[in-house]
Amino acid sequence: xxxxxxKPVGGPLAGIKVVELAHIMAGPVCGLMxxxxxxxxxxxxxxxxxxxxxxMVPPAIDGESAAYMMMNRNKRxxxxxLKAAEGKEVLRRLxxxxxxxxxxxxxxxxxxxxxxxxAMRAINPxxxxxxxxxxxxxxxxxxxxxxxxxxxGMSGLMSITGExxxxxxxxxxxPVTDITAGLLGAMGVMAALVERQRTGQGQRVDTSLFExxxxxxxxxxxxxxxxxxxxxxxxxxxxxNGPYQAFPTADGWINIGAANQTNWLRLTxxxxxxxxxxxxxxxxxxxxxxxxxxxxxxxxxILRHRTTADWLCxxxxxxxxxxxxxxxxxxxEHPHTTARGMVVEVEHSRAGPVQAIGLPIKFSRTPxxxxxxxxxxxxxxxxxxxxxxYDAAAIDALADAKVVA
Length: 405
Description:
Layout: E1 17-21, H1 26-36, E2 40-46, E3 60-61, E4 64-65, H2 66-71, E5 75-80, H3 85-96, E6 100-103, H4 109-113, H5 117-123, E7 128-133, H6 148-154, H7 176-199, E8 204-208, H8 209-214, H9 218-227, E9 244-248, E10 253-257, H10 261-270, H11 285-290, H12 292-303, H13 308-318, E11 322-324, H14 328-333, H15 335-339, E12 343-348, E13 352-357, H16 381-387, H17 392-400
Parallel strand pairs: 1-2, 1-6, 2-5, 6-7, 7-8
Antiparallel strand pairs: 3-4, 9-10, 10-11, 12-13
Helix pairs in contact: 1-7, 10-13
């Protein structure tokens, strides 16, 4: 099997065919993870307009949305009018030959188009149908739309994120519920594919931004279950162990993870602050957590006197876990990012060479990776229609009727 660039498709999911009926982020994250691991992902975009992330500009590269290109690399693109009977027939043919369908629209949208789960099962009994939504397909909030900000607030994440008590609620900087929901969807799809190998049966996979946020509260939920108290924000500090947080230095910030007794003693040696070992307030983890504000102030006063690089050298020599707080640009340029293949360059048909984030999972025998840039609107429509059995005249007729773009 060849991809659009003519290169063989590798990865552990090579041969798996996916139809992505998704937009913006959560569904496209699911699709890109499957595509990076070798699946042939056909992204179906609506006519008119396509994926809404095409209009998330600026930033753009030669008129192409940077946001769209980031979320849709390794996919082939077809643009269809799914309100037209001819467009529905194209989608039926795609589904008939697919292993997986991904969608992330509001509940009822796919049913109105005639492509709910039961309709898809009638077309392809073995289909794995992955639905990613704001709150899932059951429960009192099932009809609400999905927005990362709303999900972060309702999942409890914003109540534990921020500088501390009395400060305004803060969301995680990244759209963490969108991204995590996409990852959960991909994990669910792969589990369903494994089960289908055993039974021959497809199934529905249902996850949500709400649940994606909840699973990030494992530690804080453990505290609530044990004590009955809802923990609040602690800045960069850990809710169970300390010191385990960011501290200011002479020229920036450093993260220090002295979360157990051994590393605490090593830290006091590295900071030349052995007197803290004898301070009863910091005798063990329970005492340190009870006096965390005082400990943070004392350590900050010490750490401000030297640069981040100086402290990293001293802490590494002492065996204390530590690391710098990097900007996005610094992370992109870090040699370890390069060594792990996490910033890659691909050729876009319109924008030329563009950078993308690489596959975060490495396989020893069947490596995946980023093979191609995101499609322009309807870029592969002709190729995909030909694969579905349409001849050139039929494709021209669909294009003239604006059923495909």
